[in-house]
Amino acid sequence: LKIELLEQNSKDNICNATYQVLSYVMIGEFALGLPLNLSVLYIFVFRFKFWKNKSIFLFNIVVADFLLVACLPVKIHHYQHNLRRSEDGVVCKTMLFMLFLNRGVSIAFLIILSLDRYFNVVHLGRRNCVKVLKKSPQISVVIWLLLLPLTVPTMVKTFECCNSHGRQNETKYHDVTDTFREVVFFSQIIIPFFILVYCTVCIVNRLRKKTVGEKTKLRRAVWVVMSVVVVFSICFLPCAIARAVLLGLRLQELEKAEEVAVQVYDSLMVLSYTDCLLDPLVYCFCNSGFKDAYISSFCPTFLQKKLITSESGMGATTTTSGVRTLTLPIIEK
Predict the structure, then answer these.
(1) Residue 161: left if φ>0, alpha if ψ -120 to 50, beta else—which one?
(2) In whole angstroms, what is the distance from residue 93 CA to residue 152 CA?
(3) Which one-letter DSSP state was computed for residue 90?
(4) What b/e sequence results for 280-312 when a residue is b if at least 16 CB atoms lie within 10 Å of its CB, and e otherwise?
(5) Is 115:130 a contact under the CB 8 Å cutoff?
(6) CB-based contacts of 180: which residues, under 8 Å, 6+ apart?
(7) Tell me, what CATH number does 182's domain have?
(8) Is 212 within the bounds of a domain?
(9) Residue 294 lies in a domain
């Protein structure tokens, strides 16, 4: 009995240490993310005037990132007290709802931006339906509303770390709810990831085959389309893999391995919150007008001219095919 108690105390200490460390990681994310996202919101609203620059989709990503940052203090409080989630059911479900909704919104609009870039480069000259949607603010509202039903399963019933599959005494109703939630979770990551990879490969191949201009411009254009994939791979893909492993261990009832997998999963979820720090890089890559407005507002005077001048000329990449010359709108101004 004493040996069992010692082992349990050792596990609890390791677990508590893990969540203490994660709480400090989130403190860092909050300390960096709050001023960064507030400054980005300021630029989009007061300097860049997103509604005039057809950047409504980018603005929606900004809003989702800001709401995510606003949720972090609650998570920090729980982790500081060695709690994986709030003991209050309402707070727990509200937090899960907000985190799932903001993640879904970020992914949705990142995919739309990638599709817009895909049509602009790969199918140049054809009608771009995404560009038409960018002019309508109502479309953004519809996307938010469509994502709400996909987030509701997180609030249907109390569940253990958003993951109650494999628990005893589950009714058929609860099992269906859990299954639906997991399908939504993985489909929101796996399907967009394949779309991103496909769009990126097609765009890079198009640029490599057609571009005969400066290598520097080509390299910058490739970075534009790769930035979204990098953000997605760092923030969302690892936690999806960890969740799949956790589900597998839980269904096999491997309790010791599951305890470790839960901590790994929570750690990678904390990593996914860096999305609010990496997304501003996407804003800069996707829209040089936003970059110029941000630099002129927050960078020292002696750096402004150098930074803006060094990035000029990225608005288009010239391609040549036979006697026909095309200009690919790689970056919107």
Answers:
(1) left
(2) 10
(3) H
(4) bebbbbbbbbbbbbbbeeeeeeeeeeebeeebe
(5) yes
(6) 153
(7) 1.20.1070.10
(8) yes
(9) no
Reading phi first (left if > 0) and then psi (alpha if -120 to 50, else beta), residue 169 is in: left
How far is it, in rounded angstroms, from Cα 140 to Cα 59?
Answer: 10
CB atoms within 10 A of CB 135: 10
- Identity at 82, one-letter amino acid code: N
The pTM score is 0.79
Range of the domain at 57: 13-287
Q: What is the full per-residue pLDDT of the chain (333 aa) written as tens digits?
A: 544 444 445 455 667 788 899 999 999 999 999 999 999 999 888 888 777 767 888 888 899 999 989 999 999 998 988 888 777 777 888 888 888 888 888 888 888 888 877 877 777 766 666 666 666 778 888 888 888 887 776 666 544 444 455 555 555 556 677 777 788 888 888 998 998 888 888 888 877 776 555 555 556 656 767 788 888 888 889 999 998 898 888 888 787 888 888 889 989 999 999 988 888 888 776 777 788 888 888 877 766 676 665 555 444 444 333 333 344 343 443
Per the structure, how many domains does the chain have?
1
Residue 310 lies in a domain: no
Q: Tokens 């300390």 correspond to what residue? A: 31
Six-digit token string for 2: 């004493």
Q: What CA–CA distances, in Å, run from 32 to 38, 145, 249, 273, 326?
A: 10, 29, 35, 12, 41
DSSP alpha helix (H) spans, 123-166: 129-134, 137-151
Structure tokens at 246: 């956790």
Q: Side chain identity at 228, as an amino acid letter? A: V
Does 121 fall in a domain? yes
